[in-house]
Amino acid sequence: MTQTMSIPPFKLNGRIWLEIDEEKVLGHGRVELLERIHESGSIRQAALQMKMSYKQAWDLVNHINNGFKQPLVISKRGGKGGGIALLTPFGQEVIVEFKELQQKFFRFLDENGRK
Amino acid sequence: MTQTMSIPPFKLNGRIWLEIDEEKVLGHGRVELLERIHESGSIRQAALQMKMSYKQAWDLVNHINNGFKQPLVISKRGGKGGGIALLTPFGQEVIVEFKELQQKFFRFLDENGRK
DNA sequence: TTTCGTTATGTTTTTAAAAGTATAACGCAA
DNA sequence: TTGCGTTATACTTTTAAAAACATAACGAAA
After folding, report:
1. Which residues contact A1 (CB under 8 A, 6 or more apart)?
2. pLDDT of A18-62, one tens digit each?
3. Which residues of A69-79 are buried (b: 16+ CB within 10 A; e: fewer)?
4. Which of A34, B28, B43, B81 has fewest C-beta within 10 Å?
5. Domains along chain A?
6. Within its chain, how far is the Cα of B32 from the centroid?
7. Which of B102, B89, B85 is nearest to B18 (CA)?
8. Distance between CA B31 and CA A8 in Å, rounded?
9. Mean pLDDT, chain B, whole residue set
10. Residues by CB within 7 Å of nucleic chain D, which ones?
11. Nearest Cα to A112, choosing from B105, B33, B4, B69?
12. pLDDT at A8
């Protein structure tokens, strides 16, 4: 595809997200958090990996779960390892589909943008 | 196009913008500001229409002009009406092309999102 | 029945962004 | 040559977001 925008080294960039009731419930950062929770089985580990506080991560998870009214993450405290967190099947489904959308979006950016 | 994302009334939304040196220089809000400046010939009027302070509008214009290193807006003070602001041909070209991108992007959202 | 690492929350502090205030400079027109 | 409405810019205040801090609850395992 040819680039018409004339002068300097522009780069097209952007973001997409899902809304429920006009409110953002899932975007690129939150999906990454969910993925890391899925992989590590731990909110704390996911938070550390993303260099955010546990509190912030927990707040996000909480917000996501509330937003969807059906939880994407289930967590328990106590026991072996201190506690655990994991994605529900619904949660897994949602992130897969969101990432597909994201792939399409990246393709869109590549086709229309310029480095 | 069929919607696969299963459960609730999701809505896909997003934003695109232009970057120069990894920095956002033009997005949806700024383009609207430029359009209103173009129509009214006045930064102040454009700011009022968009319910922002003159200062904020001026700062944005300033930032845009600096980002592109070639001005999109030229302004003068004093004289009839107190002063004036207008888009350069380059500025006009840029907003036209950005709005074309935006149209494509809206089409993308419509094709992939769900109300 | 104590230790441990995590989940779960509330509270406070810090930081950054936005909004507001103030004022100078300008040049046409009366 | 004064008044007017706007551009231009600095400075202060307010607001909102993020970070930091503190602490309780939990349950497996030792």
Report:
1. A111, A112
2. 998 888 999 999 999 999 999 999 999 999 999 999 999 999 999
3. eebbbebeeee
4. B81
5. 23-110 (1.10.10.10)
6. 4
7. B102
8. 18
9. 91
10. A 52-53, 55-56, 76-80, 82-83; B 42-45, 54-55, 58-59, 61-62, 75-79, 81-85
11. B105
12. 59
Angle at the Cα of B39 from the Cα atoms of B38 and B45, rounded to 5 degrees: 90
**Which residue intervals of B1-115 are DSSP H helices?**
28-40, 43-49, 54-68, 89-112
Which pair of tokens denotes residue B110? 């419509």
Q: Which two structure tokens, joined as six digits, stand for B4?
A: 């696969």
| Tokens matching residue A9 | 């080294």
Contact: A19, B8; criterion CB under 8 Å: no
What is the dihedral sign for C-alpha A93, A97, A98, A102? positive
**Residue type at A80 in one-letter notation:** K
Given a cut of 70, whether residue A4 has pLDDT beyond it is: no
Q: Is B89 helix (H, G, I), strand (E, B) or coil?
A: helix
CA dist B112 and B115 (Å) reads 10
Which residues neighbour B97 within 8 Å (Cβ) at sequence distance 6 or greater? Answer: A4, A5
B108: alpha, beta or left? (left if phi > 0; alpha if psi -120 to 50): alpha
CA of residue B7 to C1' of nucleotide D3, angstroms: 66
Rounded to whole angstroms, the maximal C-alpha distance in chain B is: 61
